[in-house]
């Protein structure tokens, strides 16, 4: 255990990247689900596991840091044993949360391919109620939908300890939002239930991950008074938050509050003076995702065709030799430059004020990669069950953007809405070609997908030649 790596980071949503290759012959039934699940878990745990364990550890044993300096070697051995148990218990719990995200992935993916996913989710949820560590009374679908809407309108954000208490965070973590009734997962959970029961006696926050005792208490004291109290508490919380929000976020009733709450997951250095305009608040790529895309697209020269306030460009500057950041909006570009300065990378980015369509048609530059994160028409993109990437994107459809980008580079990456029509996403690869799609989940929720086109940036299929 390395206590020096303890972080008090405010950017702690867990980040899962489910990745696979897709071609026109994609066959759901022959998908290597087990391979995807294992590889994703392995990568996630390597990336974030140690930090998560340390965070939990220091919360459980705040005295550890001081004590360990003065304890005898025998006591040190006992601490070590305790750490090992802690690591084993918590890795199991995080695996459980991960498995919820994985189910959501299967469900989201099926939906975006237009496959029939209308399984009996009531039954599955009921099953999970019986299996999970929560003993919450089963609620009607309508009750759940209403509560989900209420909660998620403000609490999908997951990383501001001041504004979002642990119960809220855990609600987000512990409650799968949809279920891909895969029999093996259900069985898996059945098996795990017994293990949990055996191993869950010691931790002060065992219940944290998966129970909501407060809710139960509220239920005991009467649903009515509970929900009134909850509403009032939420209103107070929103008022407090809004008092700190910048002016450009104050309109639209409370629509922008959720973006403010997750400001540190957008930029870990937010409080060093990050600037965003209204559109960028809901368009900027969260830092963990931007970092991953930058790792994947590391190259000599990259064009960020829709730079906005710099969420992606800043991370590209850390992995690429030269970043050409284009945007049609000069004010956003100025903010991007300022924000890049906060990350110490402004000197590595060339900011170009231009319409990408014209830029692409006229430039002589031949970058290695073009990255596309165009506007999706604002947060209303979510209102469609399936987002049509040929008609819904701005300034032109996905195929046209792809064609233009391919005239500059054969490797192109596209950041697209989570409800994007996957058949269209795959079709962009061209006849007989494949693309790789990363579905990005922060905690158990899908944020968006990143599609990679071109041999230079596509990784081998999961489970094949890792
Ligand atoms: P969101 O759906 O508005 O947020 O955007 P969230 O919290 O998932 O919404 P909720 O209502 O489901 O809780 C999710 C992410 O998509 C944002 O963080 C942005 O990174 C990205 N994004 C959203 N929009 C509207 C755009 C857009 O127009 N263009 C680009 N490039 N990215 C966007
Ligand atoms: N990836 C960015 C967010 C991009 S949002 C980030 O992480 O910060 C989409 C951006 O596209 C907006 O900033 C908008 O000004 C820009 N845009 C819209 N039309 C454009 C066009 N024709 N050419 C270049 N940029 C455009």
Automatic annotation (TrEMBL):
The gene is Tgs1. Residues 148-162 have a biased composition (Acidic residues). GO terms for biological process: 7-methylguanosine cap hypermethylation; 7-methylguanosine RNA capping. Its main location: cytoplasm. One of its GO terms (molecular function) is RNA cap trimethylguanosine synthase activity. Pfam families: Methyltransf_15 (PF09445). InterPro entries: RNA_cap_Gua-N2-MeTrfase (IPR019012), SAM-dependent_MTases_sf (IPR029063). It comes from the Eukaryota. May form homooligomers. Interacts with CREBBP/CBP, EED/WAIT1, EP300/P300, NCOA6/PRIP, PPARBP/PBP and SMN. Residues 139-162 are annotated as: Disordered. Keywords: Cytoplasm, Methyltransferase, Nucleus, Phosphoprotein, S-adenosyl-L-methionine, Transcription, Transcription regulation, Transferase. Belongs to the methyltransferase superfamily. Trimethylguanosine synthase family. It catalyses: a 5'-end (N(7)-methyl 5'-triphosphoguanosine)-ribonucleoside in snoRNA + S-adenosyl-L-methionine = a 5'-end (N(2),N(7)-dimethyl 5'-triphosphoguanosine)-ribonucleoside in snoRNA + S-adenosyl-L-homocysteine + H(+); a 5'-end (N(2),N(7)-dimethyl 5'-triphosphoguanosine)-ribonucleoside in snoRNA + S-adenosyl-L-methionine = a 5'-end (N(2),N(2),N(7)-trimethyl 5'-triphosphoguanosine)-ribonucleoside in snoRNA + S-adenosyl-L-homocysteine + H(+); a 5'-end (N(2),N(7)-dimethyl 5'-triphosphoguanosine)-ribonucleoside in snRNA + S-adenosyl-L-methionine = a 5'-end (N(2),N(2),N(7)-trimethyl 5'-triphosphoguanosine)-ribonucleoside in snRNA + S-adenosyl-L-homocysteine + H(+); a 5'-end (N(7)-methyl 5'-triphosphoguanosine)-ribonucleoside in snRNA + S-adenosyl-L-methionine = a 5'-end (N(2),N(7)-dimethyl 5'-triphosphoguanosine)-ribonucleoside in snRNA + S-adenosyl-L-homocysteine + H(+). GO terms for cellular component: Cajal body; cytoplasm; nucleolus; nucleus. PANTHER family: S-ADENOSYLMETHIONINE-DEPENDENT METHYLTRANSFERASE RELATED, TRIMETHYLGUANOSINE SYNTHASE. Catalyzes the 2 serial methylation steps for the conversion of the 7-monomethylguanosine (m(7)G) caps of snRNAs and snoRNAs to a 2,2,7-trimethylguanosine (m(2,2,7)G) cap structure. The enzyme is specific for guanine, and N7 methylation must precede N2 methylation. Hypermethylation of the m7G cap of U snRNAs leads to their concentration in nuclear foci, their colocalization with coilin and the formation of canonical Cajal bodies (CBs). Plays a role in transcriptional regulation. This is Trimethylguanosine synthase. It is found in: Cytoplasm; Nucleus, Cajal body; Nucleus, Nucleolus.
């Amino acid at each position: 255990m390395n206590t020096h790596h303890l972080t008090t980071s405010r950017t702690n949503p867990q980040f899962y990247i489910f990745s696979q290759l897709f071609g026109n012959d994609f066959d759901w039934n022959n998908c290597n689900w087990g391979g995807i699940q294992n590889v994703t878990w392995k990568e996630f745990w390597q990336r974030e596991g140690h930090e998560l364990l340390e965070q939990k550890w220091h919360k459980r044993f705040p005295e550890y840091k001081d004590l360990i300096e003065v304890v005898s070697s025998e006591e040190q051995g006992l601490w070590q044993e305790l750490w090992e148990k802690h690591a084993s218990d918590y890795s199991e719990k995080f695996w459980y949360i991960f498995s919820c995200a994985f189910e959501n992935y299967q469900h989201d993916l099926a939906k975006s391919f237009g496959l029939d996913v209308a399984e009996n989710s009531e039954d599955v949820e009921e099953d999970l109620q019986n299996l999970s560590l929560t003993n919450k009374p089963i609620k009607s679908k309508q009750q759940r939908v209403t509560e989900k809407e209420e909660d998620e309108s403000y609490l999908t954000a997951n990383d501001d300890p001041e504004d979002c208490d642990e119960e809220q965070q855990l609600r987000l973590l512990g409650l799968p939002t949809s279920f891909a009734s895969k029999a093996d997962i259900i069985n898996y959970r059945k098996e795990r239930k017994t293990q949990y029961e055996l191993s869950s006696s010691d931790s002060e926050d065992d219940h944290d991950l998966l129970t909501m005792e407060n809710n139960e208490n509220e239920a005991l004291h009467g649903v009515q008074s509970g929900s009134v109290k909850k509403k009032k508490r939420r209103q107070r919380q929103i008022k407090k938050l809004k008092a700190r929000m910048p002016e450009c976020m104050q309109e639209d009733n409370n629509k922008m509050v959720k973006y403010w709450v997750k400001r540190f997951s957008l930029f870990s250095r937010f409080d060093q003076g990050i600037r965003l305009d209204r559109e960028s608040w809901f368009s900027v790529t969260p830092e963990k995702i931007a970092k991953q895309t930058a790792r994947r697209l590391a190259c000599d020269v990259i064009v960020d065709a829709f730079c906005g306030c710099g969420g992606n460009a800043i991370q590209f500057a850390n992995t690429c030799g030269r970043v050409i950041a284009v945007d049609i909006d000069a004010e956003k570009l100025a903010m991007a430059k300022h924000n890049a300065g906060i990350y110490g990378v402004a000197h590595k980015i060339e900011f170009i004020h231009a319409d990408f369509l014209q830029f692409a048609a006229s430039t002589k530059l031949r970058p290695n990669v073009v990255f596309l994160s165009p506007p999706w028409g604002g947060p209303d993109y979510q209102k469609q069950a399936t987002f049509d990437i040929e008609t819904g994107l701005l300034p032109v459809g996905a195929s046209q953007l792809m064609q233009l980008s391919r005239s500059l580079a054969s490797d192109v990456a596209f950041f697209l809405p989570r409800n994007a029509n996957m058949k269209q996403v795959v079709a962009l690869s061209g006849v007989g070609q494949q693309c790789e799609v990363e579905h990005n989940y922060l905690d158990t929720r899908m944020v968006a997908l990143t599609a990679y086109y071109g041999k230079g940036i596509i990784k081998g299929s999961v489970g094949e030649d890792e």
